[in-house]
Write a structure and sequence with these properties.
By secondary structure, the protein is mainly alpha-helical. The protein has one domain: Orthogonal Bundle (Arc Repressor Mutant, subunit A), CATH 1.10.10. Helices cover 68% and strands 7% of the residues. The chain contains seven helices and three strands. It has helices at residues 3-13, 20-48, 56-65, 72-78, 86-95, 117-141, 145-167, and strands at residues 70-71, 99-103, 111-115. The chain has a three-stranded antiparallel sheet with strand order 1-3-2. A hairpin with a 7-residue loop joins strand 2 and strand 3. Helix 2 crosses helix 3 and helix 3 (56-65) packs across helix 6 (117-141). The radius of gyration is 20 Å and the shape is globular. The relative contact order is 0.09. It comes from Ponticaulis profundi.
């Protein structure tokens, strides 16, 4: 029986509250699902506007690069693209004409990324999508600003907890 089913069964029968372990596993599952769904939503929005050559991950990568030049190492350090092949996606985005990558004159190991006009268009579409969704959260999903504040505080503490696990070998 999966964690979701165990928690539902317990709450249905009013036998007992879910354990911390069960709640934690449920949270991990939800984080992964929400992250994947974000990619799906971005991809769907792009497809509706006629952009069919990008994945959700690639569009979010363009969004994260921003308006200026960004070192690839900065994007890796943020951790937003863990589990994806960053070099593969950068190569595909460069081949598609969405970004250019250059080597730093000071340190040839450093790769800098900059959006082309096509990449900037995608970035602006993703930003507009996020703005529309932010405005729709409360009226359509009953997600209030204080809900997001609480979520952000919890996610920040969880990220710090995991970073400490690695850093201090806990």
């Amino acid at each position: 029986m999966g964690v979701d089913m165990m928690i539902e069964a317990k709450s249905r029968d009013n036998v007992a509250e879910a354990t911390v372990g069960e709640t934690f596993l449920k949270s991990l599952t939800l984080l992964e699902q929400v992250h994947r769904r974000l990619h799906d939503v971005v991809k769907d929005d792009l497809e509706r506007s006629g952009e069919r050559s990008l994945t959700g991950v690639q569009a979010l990568l363009l969004y994260e690069i921003g308006d200026g030049e960004t070192p690839a190492s900065t994007l890796r350090a943020r951790g937003a693209f863990a589990g994806t092949s960053m070099s593969y996606n950068v190569k595909k985005l460069q081949e598609g004409g969405y970004l250019v990558q250059t080597r730093s004159d000071d340190d040839r190991r450093t790769v800098r990324l900059k959006l082309t006009p096509s990449g900037q268009d995608v970035r602006e579409r993703v930003a507009a999508l996020f703005e529309r969704q932010a405005n729709a959260l409360e009226p359509t999903a009953s997600v209030r600003p204080d809900d997001l504040d609480h979520f952000n505080r919890t996610a920040t503490r969880l990220e710090r907890f995991w970073s400490d696990q690695i850093r201090f070998r806990l």
